[in-house]
Every structure is written in structure tokens, then in C-alpha cells.
Amino acid sequence: MQKQAIIVGAGLVGSLWSVLLAKRGYEVNVYELRDDPRKAGFRGGRSINLAMSERGWKAIEKAGIRTKIEQVAIPMHGRKMHDTEGELSFQAYGEEGQAIYSVSRGGLNIELINIGDEYDNLTYHFGYKCKGIQLETNTAIFEDVDTNERIEVNAPLIFGTDGAFSAVRRSIMKQDRFNYSQQYLEYGYKELHIPPTSDGQHLIDKNALHIWPRGQFMMIALPNVDGSFTGTLFLPFEGQSPSFEELHSDEEVLSFFKKYFPDSIPLLPELLEDFRENPTSGLVTVRCNPWHYKKQVLIIGDASHAIVPFYGQGMNAGFEDCTILDDMMETYDEDWSKIIEAFGDSRPQDADAIADLALRNFVEMRDLVADPMFLLRKEIAAHLHEKYPSDFLPLYSQVTFSHIPYHQALEEGKAQDALFEQILAIEGIEENWSTNPLVDQIFQKWLKKKES
């Protein structure tokens, strides 16, 4: 097979994958609907900041830009919760020194494209809309968005990295025996902007993910290197109170924030303007299978497994796709029939698992982070990990600070639910959990059962 590939989509996953292929000597042509973001500028208004964790960093390291990205990534060591009285509490993500990192989607995308431009065998084509794939001939059809001229290009390998509404996936879907589901949450999100101070500093602690949990809805804020924060309000579209359908006038919006997020109002001088002008966007989960056609056309990233953002794993999971494929090129000596078959057999179960975990974490962030029993569970989990580091790793750490396959982490999370159901049922556990011998007894029985 000639070492040639077409990539449809120059977002985060497509840009990264193009670099990894180019590093291995492939002639790569990347086609992207948008204008070159280096010239057009990154457009905000409907973005959710990215939280880079271990799976993402591994891929970034493979691309050779870890040092550059670290310089513009802000460590967030845990969640800082804001209650309705403005009181703050902190919940660490992991062990001391562990953090997830807030990075700019646009900045990271541009950096990946820049490094791609350093390769003579990698070419970007911006302003081309994919109209579909002729699967039998491995031909991609594009339309120039300025001239409406159609072009046809072919290569032995075509990769669809064109997002949740992938044109490449639509072409594969036309074949027999293709399973597909698309599920929207009843919640939408709206971006809000917290500006920096006059001297470019952050108005609130920059080393935390700020969260305003309110039971059936919430707001979060992640730091940016310019001193600002990107805030995101998650609220039902309709049918519940409060919901976006209830917030029409400036007075209604302001009243809503005064009631539920009073301490945020001084941080959001452009609140009303942002609320009017920024779109209310949906949150979708995409599951499908198979991800390939005849081991020649393959979809990865959001094109095959879009998820909601509540575990901060969408980008990380997409980047892990690239890491796994790159490793498989070594394992199978670049035999793509074997690579795609092995990837297609193993990776979808992890994609389904992280989709489930992301939905689960939405409930945690929205409803549970301020619940005393949930916080107690977190304390006991940290205690068990410290006491039995080789036998117990909290679910969040498995997902965020390790490379344990997602499906294994999900199963372990279910097992940990059963463990804590027993521990938290101990009478008086709130007062004596650190010294109560029943905790260790229950844990040892749980561990023995799990290992049997």
C-alpha cells in the first residue's frame, strides 16, 4: 500500500492525527470546511474549555509539542464549589500535585496546524466541504465553499475526523449492518465571559475548576492564560423551572443570576450581552459501529464517539484514538488491514464506556458535589487509596490520571459503588470513618470477592 492518506477535518483530532502520520512518512492531505484558523481567528461564543489530562498529554507528547502546550496550560488541582451564599469549598481531583489542565481549544488547534506545516509531506486545504465518500473507489468528494467547484481525490486510506455530524460517517452509514444512535440531553449550554482584572490577573482562583452546583443545573468556569475565564451555564432547554425558555428579557436573566449565582454577577460585566448574543447549544452523545469500511475508511474522534463534556474526556478520548493507532502501526508493521480490524474490534467498547461515564459525571457535578455524603465518600476513597495504593484507585483517577481502558474503569466504578453503598450504611460513619474497623473489614471482603 502506498503511504498516502486523506484526512477529512482539521479540528483537534484531525490535526494531531495528520502530524503523527506525517512523522511516519505518509503523504497526508487534510481537507477542512473552515477557513484557516490562523488567519480567520478562533471564534468563541459556543465553546467549552478543554481539560487536558494524562491521555491527552501522551498524544501531545507524541506530536512533539508538549513543552509548547505546557507553557499555555493552566493546572487545575480540583473543583472549587460556590454555594448560593458565596461560600467556597474545595475538592481535590487526585493526589497532591495531580491536576487537569485548562487549555484553549483554538490555541491548541492552531499549534497543531503550525507543527503540521513543518512537514513537506503534509498539506492543509481549507474551505472545502466534504460531500461524501465513494467507498468502492476510496474517493472523497469536496466542494470549494467559495467557488462551489467540486473536486475528487483518492488515497488508499481515508480518515474521518470531521466531528459529531461527520460527512464521512454518513457515507459509511449507507452500508448494511451499521448501528447508529444519537442522543441529546434535555440540557443546553451557553458561554459566558469572565474578564481579567485591569492588570491582566484572574479575578478568582485560577488553579481550580469553578463550579456552581444547583441540583438540576449548574455553571462552571475554567481559566484562560490572558487572565479571563470561560464560563458555561448548563440549564434545561424547557419543561423544567428554571430553564432557558423562561429567560427572555434582561430582567429575567438578571433575576435568575441574583437568585442562583449571586457571587458571579460582579464577575460577569457582560452577562446580559453574552446571554443575548451567544447561542444556546445542545449536548449530544453519538454511538456507532462499525467505525470503518473495508479497512480503508476509518472514523475517529467525535465522528465515531461524540460525548457530553462532563468528564473532560472528549478531546482526551479522541487524542487517545490517535495514540492507540500510532502504537498499532508499530505492532502491526503498518499493515492497515490488521490495524483497522484490531482498532475497530477493541476501541468502541471504550468509547461507549466513556460516554456512560460522562453522563454519570454530569449528575455528580450538577447534583452531588455539594452533598455531604458524597463528599464523605470522596474522603474515604482517598483514605483507602492511601492505605491500599495497589488495590484501590478512585474512579476519577482511573479515568483522568491513568491509561486504564475506559471500559475497565467503568466496571471498576460500578464495583466501587457497591463497596461504598455498604460503607456509607454503617451507623455513625460520618463521625468515625477513619477509625471504624468495619470500613477495613468491608473493604477486605469486597477486595477478596473482586479478585475471586
List key phrases describing it.
452 residues, 19 strands, alpha/beta, FAD/NAD(P)-binding domain, seven-stranded mixed β-sheet, 3 domains
**Count of DSSP H/I helices:** 16
Derived from helix and strand composition plus strand pairing, the structural class reads alpha/beta
Spans where pLDDT lies below 50 across 5 or more residues: none
CATH architecture of the largest domain: 3-Layer(bba) Sandwich
Percent of residues in beta strands:
15-25%
CATH topology of the largest domain: the name is FAD/NAD(P)-binding domain
Major sheet strand order: 6-5-14-15-16-13-17
Helix % is: 40-55%
Main sheet summary? 7 strands, mixed
Query: How many domains in all?
Result: 3
Q: CATH homologous superfamily of the largest domain?
A: FAD/NAD(P)-binding domain
Q: What is the CATH class designation of the largest domain? A: Alpha Beta
Shape annotation:
globular
Structure description:
The chain has 452 residues and is of the alpha/beta class. It folds into three domains: 4-82 and 100-181 and 283-360, FAD/NAD(P)-binding domain (3-Layer(bba) Sandwich); 192-279, no CATH class; 371-451, no CATH class. 40% of the residues lie in helices and 24% in strands. The protein contains 16 helices and 19 strands. Strands 6-5-14-15-16-13-17 form a seven-stranded mixed beta sheet. A six-stranded mixed beta sheet has the order 8-2-1-12-19-18, with helices on both faces. β9 and β10 (139-144) form a beta hairpin. α1 (12-23) packs parallel to α10 (314-331) and α14 runs antiparallel to α16 (437-451). The longest helix is centred in the C-terminal third of the chain and has 33 residues, at 336-368. The radius of gyration is 23 Å and the shape is globular.
